[in-house]
Amino acid sequence: MNVVRQLVQQTARQGKLSRAVPPARLCSTGVVGIQRLTHDNLKPSLLRSSTLRDAAQTRHLSSTESYKFEVINVQDEDDFKKRVLENDKPVIVDFHATWCGPCKLLGPRLEKLLSEENGKVIMAKVDIDENSDLAMEYGVRSVPTVMGMKDGKVQSQFVGLIDDDQIQTFVDKLIIS
């Protein structure tokens, strides 16, 4: 991140950017929200866009059929109990960390696959750094750890990255159990 930040700030000071980049728009995955960068030695393809997510709110993501499903960002143990354990629907719980590379790859894949389930399952995201007590309570030793919960009990789980067809099988088993 520091290299990207320094490069963009240095280029902005030299007046070689078509528009200046506010420092708040920089993140660890590159520059966020820039439509176009022009510089003799800086190519836009070298900078990746990403979206900022509001961790304090529930998000609704649209699939290709424009059906919405619920993604819960767990805030604390009481929130977890109320929104995950007491939920009538099956819940896929993604224990992740912001610094975890495999977590950043798995999260969007899970969201995409779950969006195709027509609301039969809910996704809950638990940041292990913010909710370490929950991670310890559920025996999370490495991230990403994904648990399938139904009626407040863990039905199955997996750790690490797995193929999309294995994730789909995991979700299907949770729904029919």
TrEMBL record:
Q: Which GO terms describe its molecular function?
A: protein-disulfide reductase activity
Q: Which Pfam families match?
A: Thioredoxin (PF00085)
Q: Does the keyword Transport apply?
A: yes
Query: From which domain of life does this come?
Result: Eukaryota
Q: Name one GO cellular component term.
A: mitochondrion
Cite the entry's keywords alphabetically.
Disulfide bond, Electron transport, Redox-active center, Transport
Any idea where the Thioredoxin domain is?
60-176
InterPro entries according to UniProt = Thioredoxin, Thioredoxin-like_sf, Thioredoxin_CS, Thioredoxin_domain
UniProt keyword Disulfide bond present: yes
One GO BP: cell redox homeostasis
PANTHER family per the UniProt record, alphabetical: THIOREDOXIN, MITOCHONDRIAL (PTHR43601:SF3)
Q: What family does the database annotate? A: Belongs to the thioredoxin family.
- Kindly provide the name given to this protein in its UniProt entry: Thioredoxin
Q: Which organism is it from?
A: Elysia marginata
